[in-house]
Amino acid sequence: MTNTRSDWEQRFQSLTLEGRAFIDGQYCSALSRDTFECMSPVDGRFLAAVASTDEADANVAVQVARRAFESGVWAKLAPAERKRILIRFADLILANQEELALLETLDMGKPISDSMAIDIPATANAIRWNAEAIDKIYDEVAPTPHDQLGLITREPAGVVAAIVPWNFPLIMASWKFAPALAAGNSFILKPSEKSPLTAIRIAQLALDAGIPKGVFNVLPGFGHTVGKALALHMDVDVLAFTGSTAIAKQLLIYAGQSNMKRVWLEAGGKSPNVVFADAPDLRAAAQAAASGIAFNQGEVCTAGSRLLVERSIREQFIPLLVEALQAWKPGHALDPATTVGAVVDQRQLESVLRYISIGKEQGAELIAGGNRTLEDTGGLYVEPAIFDGVTNAMTIAREEIFGPVLSLITFDTAEEALAIANDSIFGLAAGVWTSNLSKAHTFARGLRAGSVWVNQYDGGDMTAPFGGFKQSGNGRDKSLHAFDKYTELKATWIKL
Known about the structure:
The chain is α/β, with parallel strands linked by helices and 496 residues long. The chain folds into 2 domains: 5-267, Aldehyde Dehydrogenase, Chain A, domain 1; 272-459, Aldehyde Dehydrogenase, Chain A, domain 2 (3-Layer(aba) Sandwich). 39% of the residues lie in helices and 20% in strands. The protein has 15 helices and 23 strands. A 7-stranded mixed sheet has the order 14-17-18-13-12-20-21, sandwiched between helices. The protein has a 5-stranded parallel sheet with strand order 9-8-7-10-11, sandwiched between helices.
């Protein structure tokens, strides 16, 4: 039986919200005793006072994580044993699916139906997939002379810290902690101060699953305090990050100023979604374009925010696009029928509305949406917007808005489309719609993007690597390639 909005409200009343940090297997306040208020963008309600950790707490967490790593209590377990425990962790996440989904929605604003159907199952799947993989990855023996033996082995890197964003709080975290833990590292998770509650909650589930204390730690707080402290820490071996390009660049500086820690970055995007006149299904392309900008309130790093449409189908395509967007209406995030929830906080809402104003000022035509709505709820809602008449030189086509604002750009030739698509500092993802197999391959090969989707938008699963070109970052989440980020290769050469 599907829960109603009223059911979710009643479930919230019975929740005990935990806001403390999790270090060395237990919840604890920040050493400073400082907290910050966690407010829901859904309706403005107060959720919890959350520990505001800082450098002092980071020092303790790193020391604890290092001690756990050096003890071998996790790192030296057989891969099959780590697998067993991590699968138990995934099972516990699914066993607590409703609680975690409710926390995710109230904290971040996404529709409860998405939290239930996508975020929590995907988190469990990421943990289980990496767990299942770890005892199937073999080391190597080098081709040596008869009197030599060359071994190439993978070893866990040590202490891994991850700074994750607020838009997919658990999914983004699991793409990092799942392979890092599976490989035998100790882990410190710094969730966004805008959506920390699910990260704090799953720390206890990790312990319950059998992950030893000190191996999985959670430090809520701000980027300029605890995030900076982790990035500068001399005893953090690896730093993984998903977030803005500006912060990603700063983290590289911090790594250079400290211990040259490995830094893996998944940063911004301004992804082109290119629709050719020979697309196999224009209605399907329009629907994908609408979902590609409206899903998760447009707060998606791979959002198809630049829609490139071939001129010959432009007049036919625009009505299909506007019609498709009608399925994406803001509604109360606890209503299971809602497709577009609340923007994460007031600052982000104001940023989205500012970009909409800039688009108008620079001569683009707003042909759908773009207004704040549902203000009577106390929540932060905005209608998905479509701008027509956009050029790639406009601010709304160049800067990552991280909101439901779509820029429609017209092109005449494939060469022009490719030039526009690649004319960006970003290179995270792209979509291509065509019935011509040769064109699809050629165009995809020419795109400077880490993920290219053909005749769909936002495809793939855990088997495919995810990450960007150019200023969209480095390294890859998901797939077996993710283990490269959290392991060191060692060559051992033995004279026989």
